[in-house]
């Protein structure tokens, strides 16, 4: 049987930390759906379409990966797409409490679905989309923490916002 997992997140934008989880996840799942989970009332730096496009460019042509977006109840998406596993990454202790709560509520909502965690690679311990945006927004270099294409897009985004004042 094919082992399929859903890796949900904001991915605003995708970082090398996310990529590490994706690559390692593919060692024990046959297929991964990278799911841009969004709240329609909250806008990110990148639109949902831009985030999906960046993910596609970064993961390249890989038949094991599908990129999708969703804004409802995650366990329903997972069930409806024939998966039984939610893949998540853990960085610092601060991730733990939130992830623990999410895993418990999701299990309560659907007992057939398990959340599986991978510890971050030590290089990506402090890499979060929010910190990346914060640093890049103030002109700091985030080279090495995000793929090259993301670096370019971040620079373009912030150049636009500086122009707009
Ligand atoms: P969220 O909005 O839920 O935090 P993110 O896009 O930030 O979504 O992250 C999606 C998932 O990837 C989460 O499980 C998060 O912990 C994990 N993740 C993000 N950055 C890293 C990283 N540097 N190393 C390992 N896991 C990470």
Walk me through the structure:
By secondary structure, the chain is of the alpha/beta class. It has a five-stranded parallel β-sheet, sandwiched between helices. It has a single domain, classed as 3-Layer(aba) Sandwich (Rossmann fold), CATH 3.40.50. The chain contains six helices and five strands. The chain is 44% helix and 19% strand. It is globular. The structure holds adenosine-5'-diphosphate. The site of adenosine-5'-diphosphate has 16 residues, from helix 1 and strand 4.
Task: Tell me briefly what this model is.
The chain is α/β, with parallel strands linked by helices.
Itemize the secondary structure elements and their pairings.
Blueprint: E1 4-9, H1 16-25, E2 31-37, H2 48-59, E3 65-70, H3 74-80, E4 85-90, H4 93-109, E5 114-119, H5 129-137, H6 148-164
Parallel strand pairs: 1-2, 1-4, 2-3, 4-5
Bound molecules: adenosine-5'-diphosphate.
Indicate the mean pLDDT: 94
DSSP strand (E) fraction? 15-25%
Count up the helices.
6
What's the number of extended β-strand segments? 5
CATH class: Alpha Beta
State the low-pLDDT regions, or none: none
Q: Identify the bound ligands.
A: adenosine-5'-diphosphate
- If you consult CATH, what is the topology? Rossmann fold
Distance between the termini: 54 Å
Q: So what's the overall shape?
A: globular
- What's the number of domains? 1
Specify the structural class: alpha/beta
What is the architecture at the second tier of CATH?
3-Layer(aba) Sandwich
Which sequence of SSEs, written as H and E, runs from N to C?
Answer: EHEHEHEHEHH
Strand order of the largest sheet: 3-2-1-4-5
Q: What is the chains' assembly state? A: single chain
